[in-house]
């Protein structure tokens, strides 16, 4: 009898090929397909050679014919119109109860739309985040599936067996929620990744330009940090990068142009935070920091014209390195607190029932932001699933308290030295704002009411009552309609 596939995977680029090999390692039979057909044969004769659990297909008809029912087809293609095009091409070949999975970095509104569109046709749909890059896809990614809940039992076994596992053996994959929830959580993951990377880069610049440390010294600092509370994949690779030399002995990091690229998921997170009115300031700063870095030519010109600080660091370098570590840790806690605030608001806005501890567990292994720290976040939500803000959890509150003097010293010193620390500084400003019972927004409301009759609420009256003052004596008594973010 002809061998049948458990799942088909379309898209034989780096992610798709490695996911297929991973599924095959776990005993699943996978049918491989790609728009450019030559890549099917290249894969079968290359990385997939000798595996009877990987079958190639040279048309969608052939691919569908090779699948067990209900059929499961996973797309690992470029996000955007390629996904919609493949859905349309697949539809004539599928029947009610079949499942399409999009594992690319799709924008969550597209996943909401596609889930509904396919549900109307009786086709199940999952939009899933897959993180961990090439290595993760091959040996265990973090997988964040959302979509039609009826689809989860069909794919749970495959996904949880190929996903990364925590030290306790728990899979870094669980059901996230309805329609776009999986891609939303993946988007937030990527935003947090932007924040983590920016924080590390700021620590690097402060050590390099402020303290004058060599790459080798910084390699040792990051390697040391990776043994403690900051133990994470990104700190680990930073230590590796700083220690890496080419054949001539040159540190490769010094040869790389300081102009950052981006693919859009950090920007989506920032835009969505503005839409939902959640102050996710650190991720936004991280996106803007990449934008500023990309203005390389302008910066080079400006560096010759705009004067900065003449101050030089004086003091105990080793003690200051420890201050930087603590400032990084405190800023990172703020960034994750903001990320979870965003997901909480998104769940309310889009009607998802997100399990925040489950999200932390999914990010605990396999993905780019994997860290020991995420285990602590999981524990915080285990202690209190209704935790309103990570900053209020006893464990994180304690760390922030112990890091706070260092954090303030680092931000103040960077200002004095003229070294930009946008992410460290915004984290501290957020912290001070969040813990402030009375912000200056009373004056802001007065300004709005002064020039636009936007009205204000009063501290001595119940919330929800709006007042207007005729500030100049010449204005009328008509007020504008109110608007609250
Ligand atoms: P790419 O994002 O480079 O996409 C390559 C695949 O998309 C190929 O199979 C290509 O087919 C197909 N494709 C393209 Br491009 N345009 C198409 C179109 N108009 N119609 C049909 N197919 C089209 O591959 P990747 O880096 O493996 O990523 C796959 C997905 O996973 C993406 O959404 C990506 O954002 C996401 N992702 C990537 C990573 C990573 O580290 N690379 C990590 C996590 C998630 P062809 O061979 O015929 O050109």
Q: What would the keywords be for this entry?
A:
485 residues; alpha/beta; eight-stranded mixed beta sheet; 19 helices; globular; binds nicotinamide 8-bromo-adenine dinucleotide phosphate
Describe the structure.
This protein has 485 residues and is an alpha/beta fold. Strand 7 (142-147), helix 7 and strand 8 form a beta-alpha-beta unit. Helix 15 packs antiparallel against helix 16. It has helices at 14-25, 38-45, 60-65, 81-90, 108-119, 133-139, 152-162, 181-210, 215-225, 233-243, 265-276, 281-294, 296-305, 317-350, 356-362, 372-383, 394-417, 422-434, 441-452, and strands at 7-10, 30-33, 54-56, 72-75, 99-102, 124-131, 142-147, 177-178. The longest helix is centred in the last third of the chain and has 34 residues, at 317-350. It contains 19 helices and 8 strands. The protein has an 8-stranded mixed sheet, sandwiched between helices. The structure holds nicotinamide 8-bromo-adenine dinucleotide phosphate (NBP). Nicotinamide 8-bromo-adenine dinucleotide phosphate binds at residues 11-16, 34-36, 39, 76-79, 82, 85, 104-105, 130-131, 133.
Segments where pLDDT lies below 50 for 5+ residues? none
Average pLDDT for all residues: 96
The order of strands across the largest sheet is: 3-2-1-4-5-6-7-8
Helix percent reads 40-55%
Can you count the helices?
Answer: 19
Largest sheet: 8 strands, mixed
What coarse outline follows from CA principal-axis ratios? globular
> Beta fraction of the residues?
5-15%
The separation of the N and C termini measures 62 Å
In N-to-C order, the SSE pattern is EHEHEHEHEHEHEHEHHHHHHHHHHHH
| DSSP E strands, number | 8
- Structural class by sheet pairing and helices: alpha/beta
Backbone CA Rg: 26 Å
- Give a list of the ligands: nicotinamide 8-bromo-adenine dinucleotide phosphate
């Amino acid at each position: 009898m002809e061998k049948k596939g458990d799942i088909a995977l379309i898209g034989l680029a780096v992610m798709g090929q490695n996911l297929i090999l991973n599924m095959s390692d776990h005993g699943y039979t996978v049918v491989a397909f790609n728009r450019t057909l030559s890549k099917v044969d290249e894969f079968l004769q290359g990385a997939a050679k000798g595996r009877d659990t990987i079958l190639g297909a040279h048309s969608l008809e052939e691919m569908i014919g090779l699948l067990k029912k209900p059929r499961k087809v996973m797309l690992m293609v470029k996000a955007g119109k390629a996904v919609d095009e493949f859905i349309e091409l697949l539809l004539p070949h599928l029947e009610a109860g079949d499942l399409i999975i999009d594992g690319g970095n799709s924008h969550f509104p597209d996943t909401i739309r596609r889930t509904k569109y396919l549900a109307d046709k009786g086709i199940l749909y999952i939009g899933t985040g897959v993180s961990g890059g090439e290595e993760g896809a091959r040996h265990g990614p973090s997988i964040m599936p959302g979509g039609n809940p009826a689809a989860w039992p069909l794919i749970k076994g495959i996904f949880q067996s190929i996903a990364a596992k925590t030290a306790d053996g728990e899979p870094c994959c669980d059901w996230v929620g309805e329609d776009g929830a999986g891609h939303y959580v993946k988007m937030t993951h990527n935003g947090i990744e932007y924040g983590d990377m920016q924080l590390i880069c700021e620590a690097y610049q402060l050590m390099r330009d402020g303290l004058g440390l060599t790459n080798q010294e910084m390699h040792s600092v990051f390697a040391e940090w990776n043994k403690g509370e900051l133990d994470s994949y990104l700190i680990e690779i930073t230590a590796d990068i700083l220690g890496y030399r080419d054949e001539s002995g040159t540190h490769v990091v010094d040869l790389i142009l300081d102009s950052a690229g981006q693919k859009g998921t950090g920007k989506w997170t920032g835009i969505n935070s503005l839409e939902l009115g959640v102050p996710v300031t650190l991720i936004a700063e991280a996106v803007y920091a990449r934008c500023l870095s990309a203005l390389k030519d302008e910066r080079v010109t400006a560096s010759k014209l705009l004067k900065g600080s003449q101050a030089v660091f004086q003091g105990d370098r080793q003690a200051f390195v420890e201050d930087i570590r603590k400032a990084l840790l405190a800023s990172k806690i703020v960034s994750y607190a903001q990320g979870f605030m965003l997901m909480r608001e998104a769940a309310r806005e889009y009607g998802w029932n997100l399990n925040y501890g489950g999200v932390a567990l999914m990010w605990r292994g396999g993905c780019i932001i994997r860290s020991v720290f995420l285990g602590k976040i999981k524990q915080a939500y285990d202690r209190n699933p209704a935790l309103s803000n990570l900053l209020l959890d006893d464990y994180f509150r304690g760390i922030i308290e112990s890091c706070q003097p260092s954090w303030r010293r680092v931000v103040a010193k960077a200002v004095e030295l003229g070294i930009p620390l946008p992410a460290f500084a915004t984290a501290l400003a957020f912290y001070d704002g969040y813990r402030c019972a009375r912000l200056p927004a009373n004056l802001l409301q007065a300004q709005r009411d002064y020039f636009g009759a936007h009205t204000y609420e009063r501290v001595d009256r119940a919330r929800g009552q709006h007042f207007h003052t005729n500030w100049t004596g010449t204005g009328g008594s008509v007020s504008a309609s109110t608007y609250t973010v």
